[in-house]
Amino acid sequence: MRRTWAQRGQTPILYHDFRRGHLSVISGLTVSPRRQRLGLVYRAHERSIDGELARAFLRELLRHLRGPVIVVWDNLGTHKGAALRDLCSRQPRLHLEYLPPYAPDLNPDEGIWNHAKRDLANGAVCNLNELWVEVVLALERTRQSTRRLRGCFKEAGLPLMLS
Predict the structure, then answer these.
(1) Distance between CA 16 and CA 20 in Å, rounded?
(2) What pTM did the predictor assign?
(3) Measured between alpha carbons, how far is 106 from 31 in angstroms, rounded to an integer?
(4) Which of 49, 60, 101, 158 is the most exposed place for a label (fewest CB within 10 A)?
């Protein structure tokens, strides 16, 4: 939920049926070696992201990206588990680097989620399938906007990544 408009003194009321589905998304920004192209890669799942799903995400990146792949991640526990250590030992072109703890402002991927949350704010979906569609549409709007992708790096204080 985000801020919304209502008549003064009349608090908006949202009704829902409390059925819980689960949607988790893992995403990453890509920068070409010559810093000319930006991209957004994401995968949605019906369960929480764990070490195995993080590993599958990285394996997918390795299939689609050529040359060395440097992944800069936050310090989430699922980004440091045995599954990822095993993958790194088997894939010499994969290098994992970590942002300092408690530093989401340095992570350009946080900007992706700020855009998505803004696009999804105050929407009304009736079921998990509709939510999937809306999340994918929000992420695709960001993926197709070079301005938004560049803004995520600039907001994180990483404009040199784009020069």
Answers:
(1) 10
(2) 0.81
(3) 16
(4) 101
